[in-house]
TrEMBL record:
GO molecular function: ATP binding; metal ion binding; NAD binding; NAD+ kinase activity
Official protein name in the record: NAD kinase
Co-factor(s): a divalent metal cation
Family indicated by similarity: Belongs to the NAD kinase family.
EC number, UniProt record: 2.7.1.23
Organism, scientific name: Pedococcus badiiscoriae
Amino acid sequence: MSAGSTTQRRKVLLVAHPRRQEAQDVAAEVVERLHAAGIDVVVQRDEATAVKLVQHPGVTLVDDADTAAEGCELVCVLGGDGTILRGAEVSRGTGAPLLGVNLGHVGFLAEAEREDIDATVEHIVAKTYSVEERMTLEVSAYVNGDPVYTSWALNEVTVEKANRERMLEVVAEIDGRPLTTWGCDGVVVATPTGSTAYAFSAGGPVVWPDVEAVLLVPISAHALFARPMVLGPSSHLALEVVPDTLGTGALWCDGRRAVDLPPGARIEVVRSQTPVRLARLTTSPFTDRLVAKFDLSIHGWRGEARREGAVRGGQAPSTA
């Protein structure tokens, strides 16, 4: 190293659930360990106040959420899927991968659980994690041909009725051609990542995250043709709220960002060119995640790995 040169310190952005006591405790633990390893921890000022980290010597405070992840090698999120989606908002487009530690319920987007926090910090310090990219969606809303809203989603874009007592009438269009009209509670447009979220609850299929596709799932549609559909990743999807419909609608992105939709509004959804990068600590297959997160019964399984394990252990494999 030449004279006068400096080594840039490593930085990790920490995002924690602001109202969960466990998040406060875990956040303090993570900051202590990363600080001891010579890694600066960046926290948004209002969030640092909520989790009581404002005075911690290992914390660098930032005020602008849009630039909080710039220069950080990783975004570490402590919370459930909602908090992880908030972390995705600040990490997307910065190059910093997102690593979620589940402090919620299902935590499908999380890579680790609370009891794994020691090993998780070790992975961060040693940089022993891989990174995978998840496709996202770009959405634009128009009223009378004029753009009124643009956003993006990691899980799903939904068009929903705004009034509980009234149905929403929506025309679906794919690649410039009309498909069908639904009288419904709404429509979900989801990524493979979001296939286990709202789209799953609406009756959509589970899609493996390495599949490039867009899901179209009507919600409680009054129609004979109301099955979920899996579209190609380059499909251009549009949803129009019928002008003479009885109800008004709302557009939601990941259940976090919303805008009202008047009758006649048009919503266009395409695949985004900016993915969300997720840090992975293991190479376990997606099947294992499904089994663990949905607590699926695998009673009676007689897989090859189980048979081989029994033989290596000196036992004959069961044929029952």
